[in-house]
What we know:
The chain has helices at 2-9, 15-34, 69-73, 118-131, 155-165, 184-196, 204-208, 211-216, 219-227, 259-278, 296-302, 329-336, 338-347, 353-358, 372-384, 388-401, 408-422, 425-435; strands at residues 94-99, 102-107, 139-144, 148-150, 283-288, 291-293, 305-309, 313-315, 351-352, 364-366. Among the domains are: 94-158 and 263-383, 2-enoyl-CoA Hydratase, Chain A, domain 1; 387-443, Lyase 2-enoyl-coa Hydratase, Chain  A, domain 2 (Orthogonal Bundle), CATH 1.10.12. It is built from 18 helices and ten strands. The radius of gyration is 28 Å and the shape is globular. By secondary structure, the chain is α/β, with parallel strands linked by helices. Helix 4 (118-131) links the parallel strand 2 and strand 3 (139-144). The chain starts with a helix and ends in a 16-residue tail after the last helix. Pfam families: ECH_1 (PF00378). Belongs to the enoyl-CoA hydratase/isomerase family. Residues 169-248 are annotated as: Disordered.
Amino acid sequence: PSLWLKAQRKQPPHGTALRAVRCRLMEAEIEALKKFGVNIKPGHRDGYKYQAKGAFDKATQVRPWEVPLPVQIGWDYEAVEVCENFEDWNNPLFLVEVRQGIAYLTFNEPDNNNSFSPGVSAGLNDATRVLRKRPDIRIATLTGAGRMWSAGGDPRGFQASQRLAGVIGPETRPAPQPAPKSSPAQLEQNYEESKARPRPAEGPEERHGSQEHRGVASQRAQLEESYGEFGKKAEGGEHELYGGLPGPMIVDNEHVESGNTKNIRSAVQGAGMFYRWATIPQFSMALMNGSAMGGALGLLAGSDFVVAVKSAFAVLSEVRLGVIPAVVSPHVIRAVGTSNAKRIFTTAENLSMQKAMDIGLIQRIVGKKDEFPAVVKEIAEKIQAVSPEALASAKAAIFATLNQPMSEKLMNFVSQEYTRIRKTTSCEEGMRALSENRPMPWEEKNIDIKE
């Protein structure tokens, strides 16, 4: 104890010095214990695997360039959700138009404010999957049909998962009840009846029914009633467009059928959607034809360039609902910085486009959406002059080195990456074209901008 106190009075050591002090103290304690007949073997700690809670060894940290994030999390396998390629695209809720060197993507569910419904989310996931295999596409734009760009997470999905969990509906959380067994014929009849109902109104009561009605229906019946419209159920009992509960689930419903694990899995899937958009190899442009809310800001922050109409607004309104924008936080914080993120996360401030540009969320403001083509053309002229492979590698390097501390590992990675790029075919062709005083090979085909 006396040795320990003496060490404490000195300036606290760090790193190697700290480990040396600990070793000396341990040796002193071993010698002191011998006086009491306690003999501790030198290798007494061998095989001791206990690690205190919260302890973190930076030496064992996996760097993004060592094991790519998609591999760490399991996003490296991307299944086809609705459409396999752009040539046979048939998702009416998410439109794709491909021209030479550019892909125009459009949220197309204006009646639902272009929220991330199963169809819209599937379209975006399919589009980013295809874009990774299309080096001929240099630019990808993302806009919305109707008056809003996107309202983010689908409120119908939030409401359905909350009702299923018992968070809303009856005043007290009901005990889990077994779902009533329905024959395939009964399920088919329920589905046909749901299609005949008028389209839900905008208000929560009109959209989902009264509290009294929700309290009477069983949990499973409520879910079927809310989401029969999203897709006819197949023989296996799953929806055609979505195999589970619709929409991102934001409540803890571990006491009902889906379980807390499914909540987490759904959130991870949502995080994957934002990550895939932010890391596509093309130059990404968000064309904000209208306002953006909630999770939609994650897509804005993940875009390489955002141009918005002056009348639009942007807001992270999750805290008003008692939740937080956690899934999009890495992208938004990266775009606007910590101080600005704290303000817009915690106050749900409705940002004008000027404020959004001041904090770095968007890069250009136009008077109306008719001015989008001119901005896209301006950007396309710049992208036309750069190597597609170099552009993709530059984006990947930014994500790999973002917020990484200066270290030998980091220096080795960036040096190796620079060397790798210099050996690529595109770099060799570019250098050869430069020496021969002729246009770069990637400048031969003009990007076909839609007027």
